[in-house]
Amino acid sequence: MCTTYIKICNNQPLMSLLFDSLRGLLYPLYLVITIYSVVQYRIWNLVDRIIEHFGSDNVKRVEQLIPNMKLPKHIAFLVGDIGCDIDDFSDKLSQIVFWCISCHINSISIYDCEGKFESNIDAIQEKLVQNCNHSLFTEKPQHSLVVKISTPCHKNTKTIHVNKKMEPNESGDVELAFLSHFSLGKPNIAQLASRIIQRYDGSNKSEDQIKEMVSEQVTVFRHEMFSEPNLMILIAPIKALYGFSPLHLRYVEISHVKKSLKSFSNQDFAKCLLQYAGCQQRFGQ
């Protein structure tokens, strides 16, 4: 007992040296992390001031802040809390379309988990065209705004010609797709499951053949109606999918804005774009 105590006491200088060395290594690391946090806070504070200074009519300048800024080709808005009536919803939708077009994003999807737009889709389309032609988009050249209504009762695609402030892109069209939990939620996944069961039909297939068949059907399901977005902006008080199909969110960058659609501003939109531009996507690798 006494011998053990003496050995520990004799090792005290060594332990003290180890603790001092470890503290000497951790202190610079802590200092670097602190400096990084302060610099990051200052940068985001500066970005907020720049965005606020630019105002709602100059969201396009956000792209000019970073010459090689990475922007999504397809952006989706998951609206968990509309917080306004149909007229205000149409006005806000027109603003969102304008912001996206100003940043050369030509594929836009709106997912309404409440299904409010379904019974008022004609009024929304009319208001959207009115806002696009008279309030926001007043410059040439003229391109096409393709509105897709992907609900069970509206499977048509309507093309509306409007004047838009944008440079010509490859297709010359801007796609605006309306989605709901009826067309892209659990009912649609149930249809996929039924389709897989029908294809199987009790036939004697190997395990590899069944896996290949399921993979093929899921791939078809993912691309037949709605392509996977690069960026999804979740406008809702709670971070949730609200019935949105997870099969279409494999490699999507998701930005959460804890607001209602009515309160969603151009500053929020610009922050989401900057967050997307700064993220490193590994695509499952």
A few lines on this structure:
The chain has 285 residues and is an alpha/beta fold. 49% of the residues lie in helices and 16% in strands. It folds into 2 domains: 2-54; 56-278, Decaprenyl diphosphate synthase-like (Undecaprenyl pyrophosphate synthetase), CATH 3.40.1180.10.
Commentary on this structure:
The protein has two domains: 2-54; 56-278, 3-Layer(aba) Sandwich (Undecaprenyl pyrophosphate synthetase). Helix 4 crosses helix 5 (121-136) and helix 7 (186-200) packs antiparallel against helix 8 (207-224). It has helices at residues 2-10, 12-54, 61-65, 86-102, 121-136, 181-184, 186-200, 207-224, 266-278; strands at residues 74-79, 107-112, 142-149, 157-163, 173-180, 231-235, 253-257. Strand 1, helix 4 and strand 2 form a beta-alpha-beta unit. The radius of gyration is 26 Å and the shape is flat. Helix content is 49%, strand content 16%. The protein has nine helices and seven strands, in the order αααβαβαβββαααββα. It is α/β, with parallel strands linked by helices. A seven-stranded mixed beta sheet has the order 4-3-5-2-1-6-7.
